[in-house]
């Protein structure tokens, strides 16, 4: 099995470090596709379509490090702590995930050790060894319709208790229907990476959620990356390019 985490552009020097937890729909062969149809196993319930391609373009444009997961979030959702039921979800959008039903404590621990621990340890190492105090931006995508309800938001800028970077991005982001903490927010349990890696160290941070119809092609992903680069760099200037407070550990 391949590593559950990949670091792209490891020599990147930009203060922003990009993270893409839901980069891949890959399900290792021993999990027998978790009992899902091929369609479901490759659908958005398994990963965030377009997020990795957009993040890769952004990393290239900014010369930034990118830390990405390499397995489906249905095997282990790397943006959830081990104790969360959604870390190994038994269902998603009404679709049962047979291979996750009734997992034993032993199997849950095995997946945690195999997938989550290497990812979180690698991310911690990347952040703690970055040449400058990092600014963490996690990249995600979402569907235009969820559980039958149409979403009006096109781009969400999400944060937990530290609003500094999100505030600054929201002040300069234009051209789309952009909202704060939409279509998800802290109450939905989606800020685990920020809470684990950024809040204790004082790193500036935010999540970016992009409607996946806006990043369905490589050209769209590249264009979106260009917009994000502009907003993020303007936001950092507005924050006087002071990337973080606190110490690295």
Which characteristics define this entry?
alpha/beta; globular; Aminopeptidase; 7-stranded mixed sheet
Order of SSEs, N→C?
A: EEHHEEEHEEEEHEHEH
CATH superfamily: Zn-dependent exopeptidases
In the CATH classification, which architecture applies? 3-Layer(aba) Sandwich
Summing up helix and strand content along with how strands pair, one would put the structural category as alpha/beta
N-end to C-end Cα span = 30 Å
Strand count: 11
Largest sheet: 7 strands, mixed
Reading off the top of the CATH hierarchy, the class is best stated as: Alpha Beta
Continuous helix count: 6
**What is the helical fraction, as a range of percent?**
25-40%
Tally of domains: 1
CATH topology: Aminopeptidase
Shape label? globular
Beta-strand content estimate: 15-25%
Average pLDDT over all residues:
94
- The parts where pLDDT drops under 50 for at least 5 residues are 241-249
| Rg for CA atoms | 17 Å
Strands in their spatial order, largest beta sheet? 1-3-2-6-11-9-10
Q: Would you write up a description of this structure?
A:
The protein has 249 residues and is an alpha/beta fold. The protein has one domain: Aminopeptidase, CATH 3.40.630.40. The protein is built from six helices and eleven strands. Strands 1-3-2-6-11-9-10 form a seven-stranded mixed sheet, with helices on both faces. Strands 4-5 form a two-stranded antiparallel ribbon. It has a two-stranded antiparallel ribbon with strand order 7-8. Helix 2 packs across helix 6 and helix 4 packs across helix 6. The C terminus is likely disordered.
